[in-house]
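Suppose you are handed a protein chain with no further information: no name, no annotation, nothing but its sequence. What can you learn? This example shows the usual starting point.
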Amino acid sequence: MALDSHAPSIERLRVTVAMRGLAERIRPMVGDMAEPGLPPASFDLVWSEGALYNIGIENALRVCHGLLRAGGYLVFTDAVWRKENPPPEVKAGFEDDYPTMGRVADVLAVIERSGLLLIDHFTLPHEAWWDDFYTPMEIRIGELRGKYGDDDEALAVLDQLAQEPEMHRRYSDYYAYEFFVARLMG
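A reasonable first move is to predict its three-dimensional structure. Written in structure tokens, the prediction is:
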């Protein structure tokens, strides 16, 4: 099962799954992760990268707990603060998308309260941001600038998007993504 609320992304995944002959193993579905409408205790593994915060980490872990079979694993990444008192520019950058972002200790406490057993956690390396996310993002922004060079509105959106990797270059010591592995005992 692959769940996302963005129908075009799910459609793109359906095409990829079919091309790779994985339709028997992966079922892409448009849905709401806050209310996935899936049977309880039906998964051995729930994996989410950088998405659970959208419904609040506490609520997300409750939803995931309900989806897991006894002994099942929850694997997820979450943005966390690494230092106290981030510069206002950094704080503002996260304020709209993730105003409740905490530190690693905060997420560990939520895992414990959710009835899951922490197996391990680690900070994603710096290269993960650049190799897999920001470098391809900057390349794509450059391509789109060429395509939409005469569209002031599109260029304004691209300027806004380009601020994120630039902020990361300057302030990445203040925040990171943490990778967590937890298990539902039973």
